[in-house]
Amino acid sequence: MRALFLLSAAFVLTAAAPDAPDAPEIPLQTLKDVTKTLSSDDFEGRAPATPAEDKTTAYIVERFKAAGLKPGNKGAWFQDVPLVEITGQDVSPLTFTGGKTPVSLAYRTDMVIATYQVVPKADVKDSEVVFVGYGINAPERGWNDYAGMDVKGKTVVILVNDPDWQTMTLDGDFGGRAMTYYGRWTYKFEEAARQGAAAAIIVHDTEPAAYGWGVVQSSWTGPQLQQDTPGDHMDQSKAIGWIQKPAAEALFASAGKDFAALSAAAKVKGFKAVPLGVKANVSFANTIRRQASKNVIGILPGTERPDEVVLYSAHWDHLGRCDAVKGDDICNGAVDNASGVAALVAMAEANYKAGAAKRSQVFLAVTAEESGLLGSKFYAENPVYPLGKTVGGVNMDALKIYPEAKDFVITGAGKSELEDMVKPMVAAQGRRIAPEPTPERGYYYRSDHFSFAKLGVPMLDGSAGEDLVVGGPAAGKAAADDYNTNRYHKPQDEYDPAWNWGAALQDVKLYYTMGRTLADGSSWPNWYPTAEFRAVRDKSRAEAK
């Protein structure tokens, strides 16, 4: 689900790190063929729990078999992931009454609304509205936007990202420009539910959200998936959703409040939630369908320590049928993430050609990343191979399909010893490590490596930066902006035979070298002592010994 960019023309790279494991050339044709096939209209955007899933997973198994992998789940290729699909229908406007003038927000254009609760109808009636700033409760940081305010049964309005996202350095209560998990929309809905809110509404603003309203609209309309668990998620809020920033400004004006002034106040520690003196109403019906989706698992067994596992992951799903743009309603997901699955297959082929490693190598194509990392979350919580015996690995979410780059960006840098391992490999390619150009977008929390990190497994997530060999940073940034604006999570994310795969080949070669070094080695990379995942890793490793 990560946004990135691409450019056209042809390029092949075969650089190798000194003292790195010998490797066959990364098969460029495999990258092209798998990406083209999975992102074709025949696969209808690869939405989980649809007929397109069977076609998608069957094709991945076919390619895994041809690459030389064996079934990775006790003789089976699949791990069932129980999901429940909820499709909202007959959505009423989201209205606010009791202010200077009534405010009525239309579905899709002004707001989107959904629910985690598995119920046939969601109904929020005359719910008092409270502005809770950034909606954060972080006692370890001395921050609680809910302090002194009981929001049980109320509707909370929340700002996206962290309070210090506009700080241009990495200094601040929440890491400055770099987003923490407290800035993610997933956290904000989780905390609102813990506080007992009947409804939670996030104000969309393009820069701190890291994507435009079109991405929210395409992602939050149509069938919504979540993990199917006992209790039907009745501990969650009745309704969750987003409103456009101009709609929020109109709401606050109706309540006699200044949206800009209160947003500024919310950035300061000690902010107190503000009742708006208006009441929210919204209702919608839900069609409910339960169906297991599938993670696809292949393995190259190790020769000496087969119980120790190196993991490669990529999500196979995308948005399926989505809101049409110029008559096209298939969100094909070529870059995001047919390209990542293609890398998974290409790396399987390269590793098989190189021969079995000492440790086992597991290739995991997960479902429902676009619905909240559900497939990787389920695997991490129900691992086929114990996490305490999982050495680490690489996550591949959307290859950088553009000409070769001078730099390499580690997502969420400063957390794991895998970063120390990859630095000389990057240098051997004639590249350098560069800081994330947009740390405020919180990419570290937006892909499947995060599911494993939360349970202790270090996974490298990184890719080419914006400093291109031809054109430099200006060309890279222009291409990134173009992709994010015009193709990311839209029907325009389609395969183009004229793509330049130079940077992608650089990166996949790097992933191969990293994975193979782990698979033929004996090290157990850990998190840095200050990383939030260190304690759980230490515990799982101790239990595995």
What would CATH call the architecture of the largest domain?
Answer: 3-Layer(aba) Sandwich
CATH topology name of the largest domain: Aminopeptidase
Mean of residue pLDDT?
Answer: 93
Approximate helicity band = 25-40%
Give the beta-strand count.
22
Q: State Rg.
A: 23 Å
**Tally the helices: what do you get?**
14
Q: Tell me, what is the CATH class of the largest domain? A: Alpha Beta
Anisotropy-based shape: globular
According to CATH, the homologous superfamily of the largest domain is Zn peptidases
Q: What is the terminal-to-terminal distance? A: 36 Å
Unreliable stretches:
2-19
Give the tally of structural domains: 2
Beta-strand percentage range? 15-25%
Structural class by SSE content: alpha/beta
Biggest beta-sheet profile = 15 strands, mixed
